[in-house]
Design a protein that fits this description.
7-stranded parallel β-sheet; 3-stranded mixed β-sheet; alpha/beta; binds uridine-5'-diphosphate-4-deoxy-4-fluoro-alpha-D-galactose; 336 residues; Rossmann fold; 2 domains
Length: 336
């Protein structure tokens, strides 16, 4: 029988990429998702179990039904602005939900976990590139919820022998090379899908650029955009890593290369014959000027090498948003 892996949040943007990758690697991805933000249609590579991390009985049922060898936990609320308005939602889902998952794993004797964490645990960076030794000082409830979830996982590793890898993503972006899965949030708050939507649908109006007076080279915020396919690869390596390593481990996932909002816009306009139009708005509250990862630890310890840069991210996202009919207009490239 093929090994089974539980993918909490497997109907979401990154989780669905992961399921495809797991299936290709010969594993059976069992998606556990409440479909609050995920899409039933994104679950194509293994069974879908509709359930909620806040309902322990849903979890017990899925652990009883499948011979699970490990868990990948993507299920979370993940909008920074929303988290500031509704901290209870974030703390309950992301912290209590993770605790329930840990208890279900413990009861079932499943001892390996890969947890989706975020650069938001660092808050406003004290230095850049940010390495894993940088203090965690989250500045919004989303970052706080992920930091608290990490600490719960650490405690379970220390007390109960759980093996866990927390992967702190910088700015996840891009779409599947075959165009099968991509980023579809509603509402969409992220830069790249917003630029592409505005380019493809001019009636949406110009894309809003939040702030041009940051202390960066061109005044707009700098981020480290990392392709979902590179994220998925890191998860596979993390699963392997836990076969040989006990305990709790944290790795940043980014390219180490920053791109400003203005650079992302210009590169997208170059791909889309000048579209979209843009308009500068005031700063968005809570945006640090620069977030760039040092991913040296993941490279050296997991043997992870991100293959895609911004060009490949933008082309794949554009193709996914356009649909395959216009794929020929923007042929795929890999940056490295
Ligand atoms: N931006 C715009 N216009 C938009 C959307 C975004 O100018 O329509 C700007 C933002 O102000 C920011 C940059 O583009 O300067 C990137 O914004 P995103 O919303 O795409 O991504 P964030 O950097 O805010 O968010 C990412 C992750 C979060 C994580 C956060 C850590 O998606 O999960 O980094 O700060 F919490």
């Amino acid at each position: 029988m093929k090994p089974h892996v539980l993918v909490c949040g497997g109907a979401g943007y990154i989780g669905s990429h992961m399921c495809k990758r797991l299936a290709r690697a010969g594993l059976v991805p069992v998606t556990f998702d409440n479909l609050a933000t995920g899409h039933r249609s994104a679950v194509q590579w293994g069974p879908l179990e509709i359930g909620d991390l806040l309902h322990p009985a849903d979890l017990s049922a899925v652990f009883a039904r499948y011979p699970l060898q490990a868990v990948l936990h993507f299920a979370a609320r993940s909008l920074v602005g929303e988290s500031a308005r509704e901290p209870a939602l974030y703390l309950r889902n992301n912290v209590t939900g993770t605790l329930n998952l840990l208890d279900a794993m413990r009861s079932a004797g499943v001892g390996k976990l890969v947890f989706s964490s975020t650069a938001a645990v660092y808050g406003n960076p004290l230095y850049t590139p940010i390495d894993e030794a940088h203090p965690a000082q989250p500045i919004n409830p989303y970052g706080l919820s992920k930091w608290l979830a990490e600490q719960q996982i650490r405690a379970y590793c220390e007390a109960y022998g759980l093996r866990a890898v927390c992967l702190r993503y910088f700015n996840a972006a891009g779409a599947d090379a075959d165009g099968e899965t991509g980023e579809a949030h509603e509402p969409e708050t992220h830069l790249i899908p917003n630029i592409i939507r505005a380019a493809l649908t001019p009636s949406l109006g110009p894309v809003k650029l939040f702030g041009n007076d940051y202390p960066t080279a061109d005044g707009t915020c700098v981020r480290d955009y990392i392709h979902v396919e590179d994220l998925a690869q890191a998860h596979l390596l993390a699963l392997d890593y836990m076969n040989g390593q006990a305990g709790f481990h944290v790795f940043n996932l980014g390219t180490g290369q920053g791109n400003s909002v203005a650079e992302v816009l210009a590169q997208c306009q170059a791909l889309c014959a000048g579209a979209p139009a843009s308009e500068t708005q005031p700063r968005r509250p809570g945006d640090p000027a620069t977030l760039v990862a040092s991913a040296t630890l993941a490279r050296e310890t997991l043997g992870w090498t991100p293959r895609h840069g911004l060009d490949s991210i933008l082309r794949s996202a554009l193709r996914w948003h356009q649909g395959s009919a216009t794929a020929a207009a923007c042929p795929p490239t890999a940056d490295r």
